[in-house]
Amino acid sequence: TEVKGPANFPQLQNDTFLRAARGEETEHVPVWCMRQAGRYLPEFRESRAGKDFFETCQTPAACCELTLQPLRRFPFDAAIIFSDILVVPQAMGMDVQMVAGKGPTFPEPLKEPEDLQRLRVKVDVGKELGYVFKAITLTRHKIEGKVPLIGFTGAPWTLMSYMIEGGGSNTHSKAKRWLYRHPEASHMLLRMLTDVIVEYLLGQVAAGAQALQVFESHAGILGPVEFKEFALPYLRDIARRVKDKLKEAGQDVPMIVFAKDGHYALEDLSQSHYEVVGLDWTIDPQSARERTGGKVSLQGNMDPCALYAPKERISDIVKKMLEGFGTRAYIANLGHGLYPDMDPESVGAFVEAVHTHSRQMIKQK
Ligand SMILES: Cc1c2[nH]c(c1CCC(=O)O)Cc1[nH]c(c(CCC(=O)O)c1C)Cc1[nH]c(c(CCC(=O)O)c1C)Cc1[nH]c(c(CCC(=O)O)c1C)C2
Hints:
Strand content: 5-15%
CATH class of the domain at 16-264: Alpha Beta
Number of helices: 16
Bound molecules: coproporphyrinogen I
Order of helices and strands: HHHHEHEEHHEHHHEHHEHEHEHEH
């Protein structure tokens, strides 16, 4: 079979998501869900059954299929490539395995600053992560222009915390110990991650990604002071460098920053060269608008657990959320990813409620 390169992609038919990201007028509010390619879908569980998680990530055809599955069910306005944030530490030379019932696990996490020597000094991103680029190119063709394709990465602090903790954690105390005890080594690691991430994101755009989301999932474990020193500068550096390079090539790809539980940093995040700031459900929509002063588009932020409510209730919650954010410069989403036990029908109700209510609100303007 013919393998198509990153050119001559099908014409985009629904650019609602991209227009909202740029703050332009739309006919309805665009909507997608974090983890929309996930275990809440029976077809996802079937495709993944008996297969190693990271092997799946390394198989472009499998990533493409998993990315497309939610689009067959729901009229989402964007797709996000199936992959994981932990492919970046792997590319830097670390072993990461998916352990059933436990989640991602690093058999040999970083313990002390000397361990940084175990990481590759110069990462050949094209070689180590080329499989992600292939998955993006294939998916962009196979999506047939229905909706834009989002690429993503973990942010430096979030990836650093996994590399030191060795997996998920409640306290992140091993990683935070580095910040307080080894600040210079911490900055060195964060810089190394930033360099790889910048190249990784540029590679994703070259491969066909039409927007980029940076997941700072562990922002909430830091306070405002530590965030300003160890997270924000790197988030800004990533956006600045990616945008400068894209500009040289005459390209313009909207970037989203999602700092989970980083409400204390909202003002700073809205002035960090990202077009869109993603919000978790702990921030009230109206105050998020006030605090970001119309500088950025906002994305979020319904509590994923609201999907456990009856359909009519979901519709009411969505309506209030839309009234809080307004319909301009807004991308509806959940405040975090979907959980495996969620009912696909509730996800459908969420998407429909966003489209129906927002169309009505925009018509009445
Ligand atoms: C579906 C899935 C993924 N990763 C994992 C799963 C579940 C395991 C499986 O299906 O076998 C393991 C998987 N990967 C990770 C975890 C969390 C581990 C932990 O901290 O406890 C798990 C269970 C690490 C991870 N991975 C990711 C994040 C950032 C988002 C977030 O805050 O949740 C994080 C923190 C990103 C991610 N990961 C994934 C996507 C796909 C695209 C989509 O959203 O549809 C994305 C964007 C895919």
